[in-house]
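Protocol step 4 of 5: obtain the predicted structure for the target chain.
Materials: sequence only (see below). No template structures provided, no constraints applied. The aim of this step is simply to have a reference model before the mutagenesis design in step 5. Sequence pasted as it appears in the construct record:
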Amino acid sequence: MRKILIPITVVAFFVSCEKGLNYAKRFPYDKGYVLVNQNGDTVRLSDFRGKVVVAGYIYTHCPDICPFITNNMKKIQRLVNADPALKDTVIFLSITFDPRRDSPEVLREYARLYRVDTSNWVFLTGERRVIDSLMKDLGIVVEVGPMSLDVRVDTLEDGRVVADTVYRYEILHTDRIHVVTPDGRIFSYFKGSEADPNEVMKTIKEAIK
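Step 4 output (structure tokens):
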């Protein structure tokens, strides 16, 4: 099998993550957002109304901030799930803002690699336009950096030639975890990569009241 790598450069620009930053006051349950979970099932954002939501915003190719967000959410989840009265009341959401690469299969593998307890933790992706609109409503700034496309050309044993495109880029984004009340009010937010799990736990208990 012969492989040829053809680089194609696409120009993009980084801008400050703080540019255009806003602080949403309500989780947009009423906007009718339709998403897809890590199992490929179609879900509505409003399906999570009625629970306290702990939401983090990630992309699976993230080299720095997102692993810290995910690990912090794991610590928070362990605290929540250790309290039987809380476990069925709280749902964790990891919403990707990189649907081009983060398919349900990729999110499922990401959850497996991080050994996430998916009993009350859902990973969500969706159509590009839906994700872009959702991030805007939530005040999550997302800026794609310089992009390259690697076109992998393989010659199979039977002589057929197949090509596959691999997108390579990083994303500048807001570092945030939201805590949302059962009726959809954004009760508080934290810097996701630095959040103190015990402080978030206190906030979750307050959000239930």
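Step 4 remarks: The chain is about 25% helix and 30% strand. Residues 21-143+174-208 form a domain with the Glutaredoxin fold (CATH 3.40.30.10).
Proceed to step 5.
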